[in-house]
């Protein structure tokens, strides 16, 4: 038997590629080479997918850690406000120490959060939080710490000092700080999703 080759599909004739007859050995080698090629292609595709999976997993882990850090900022702010209020009311040096250590802890938390993020929206939000906290601790809290010392020395009467504290704009500052933290946490959620 002689196989007639259609001239239109002549380029597909494997016999011409291998120079004549297709022996069983040549067919096995050809199929083996084809299988090896498919296995190599599968290996490269699965390696690329695994690499992308590890990158995604690392990004999600970093975003989650960033989210935990930003979640710890708000309670620290509350503790700082509470320490200032307690110091204003009692004049206790323990509360003043708690306020100072809280300020140091807040700076540490903000530094860690800035170091662990590269997202511009998170960095901007953290800068805004740091600026608000600095504005709260430097002029605002310092004025009331000094005022409490003035009460203790007798230069100001306690009712006048408490009225000044009550009328201060600490609520507005807390709202600005909470809005800044909300913006950071929204950026965290966006990165996690």
Main sheet makeup: none
How far apart are the first and last residues' alpha carbons, in Å? Answer: 66 Å
What's the total count of β strands? 0
Taken from the alpha-carbon principal axes, the silhouette is rod-shaped
| C-alpha Rg (nearest Å) | 35 Å
Structural write-up:
The protein has 193 residues and is mostly helical. The protein has helices spanning 14-17, 24-90, 93-115, 120-153, 158-167, 170-192. The protein has six helices and no strands. The chain is 83% helix and 0% strand.
Helix and strand layout, with pairings?
Layout: H1 14-17, H2 24-90, H3 93-115, H4 120-153, H5 158-167, H6 170-192
Characteristic key phrases:
193 residues; mainly alpha; 83% helix; rod-shaped
In brief, what are we looking at here?
This protein is mainly α and 193 residues long. It has helices at 14-17, 24-90, 93-115, 120-153, 158-167, 170-192.
């Amino acid at each position: 038997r002689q196989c007639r080759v259609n001239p239109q599909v002549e380029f597909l004739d494997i016999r011409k590629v291998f120079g004549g007859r297709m022996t069983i050995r040549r067919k096995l080698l050809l199929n083996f080479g084809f299988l090896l090629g498919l296995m190599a292609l599968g290996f490269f595709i699965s390696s690329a997918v695994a690499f992308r999976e590890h990158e995604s997993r690392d990004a999600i882990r970093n975003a989650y850690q960033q989210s935990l850090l930003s979640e710890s900022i708000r309670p620290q702010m509350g503790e700082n406000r509470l320490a200032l209020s307690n110091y204003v009311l009692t004049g206790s040096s323990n509360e003043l120490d708690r306020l100072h250590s809280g300020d140091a802890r807040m700076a540490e938390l903000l530094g860690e959060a800035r170091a662990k993020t590269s997202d511009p929206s998170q960095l901007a939000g953290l800068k805004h939080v740091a600026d608000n906290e600095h504005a709260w601790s430097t002029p605002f809290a310092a004025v009331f710490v000094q005022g409490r010392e003035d009460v203790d020395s007798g230069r100001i009467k306690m009712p006048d000092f408490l009225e000044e504290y009550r009328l201060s704009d600490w609520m507005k500052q807390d709202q600005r700080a909470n809005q800044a933290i909300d913006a950071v946490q929204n950026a965290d959620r966006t990165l996690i999703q």
